[in-house]
Request: fold
Amino acid sequence: MSQKRVLSGIQPTSDSFHLGNYLGAVKQWVELQDTHDTFYCIVDLHALTIETDPALLRKRTLASAAQLLALGISPEKSTLFIQSQVPQHNQLGWIMECMAGFGEASRMTQFKDKSAKVGSDSARVGLFTYPMLQAADILLYQADLVPVGEDQRQHIELTRDLAGRFNARYGDTFTLPEAYILKAGAKINDIQDPTSKMSKSSGSGAGVIEIMDSPDANLKKIKSAVTDAGREVKFDQSEKPGISNLLTIHSALSGRTIAELENEFEGKGYGDFKSAVADVVVEYLRPIRERALELLQDEKHLLSVLHDGSAKARTVAGATVDATYKGLGVVQ
Ligand code: TYM
Reply:
């Protein structure tokens, strides 16, 4: 039987991915490579919904590729590509915009949050149509599974709705995708503000653990992580959001269960626990950062991996656009 298809994407909107990106998504991307037919996309077109500096976009797109490779995405196992190098994303994106209702697009919580932040005069139309482009990303590859963090669940639901609507009206064309969201890691929180999601756009960045940050900087950040009232290292999301977040991070990186960690730190204070979390994170990320920096030295190699991936992606995406146009009655 042929392998199930996986697609996911990540925006090149900062110099570094953070632990939320890794534990919520990319860690699963790496694991799925061995059992699934995997397509992973650096979604540079999605990054254009906010004002971008051209030099930064280029730098961050290459840095994203280097980090994904350093985190374990293998070009032999996966198709790794840049969204803008596959023009079918724009082609199917438009079709998806024509399938979506204005009201349903207006209910997307990420759009509501992000447009509220900048105000409706500054929010771009692209921010509104963003989820339909994301639907196209997924449907072009006939993906069965989409490994993402919890914040993307609503976009995957919309994608299913749009695909189902198209299939019902124009004939079976798209596979209905399912979100693949693991319980542990689905939402990693900011370590300074542990009731909010760790995010590339967080104000000071003091609560965001970045993969490309120096080991020293990450050590300091974790040692000054916000903890909670009391002294016990116990998982309790509502009473101890700070400690629970750190337990989740430790467990996901060390492979030990939360119960084991609670046992180990019984009777010890938060200080000891934070030192242990810092060690685990810093030692886990150290070789990844070094490898990413090394990969960034050889831009030619990075570009050639991405060009190969994009060529493969265009073949698959092209077939889907042909089938979509055929269903719609577009003259070809
Ligand atoms: P982006 O670039 O914001 O984030 C990439 C992935 O990281 C996950 N993530 C988190 N997971 C757990 N805890 C966190 N604090 C955290 N922060 C981010 C996200 O859920 C995501 O899986 N719209 C997408 C990009 C996209 C996409 C796609 C994803 C475009 N097309 C097609 C899947 C399929 C986004 O903005 O992700």
Remarks:
- The chain has two domains: 3-184+298-326, 203-290.
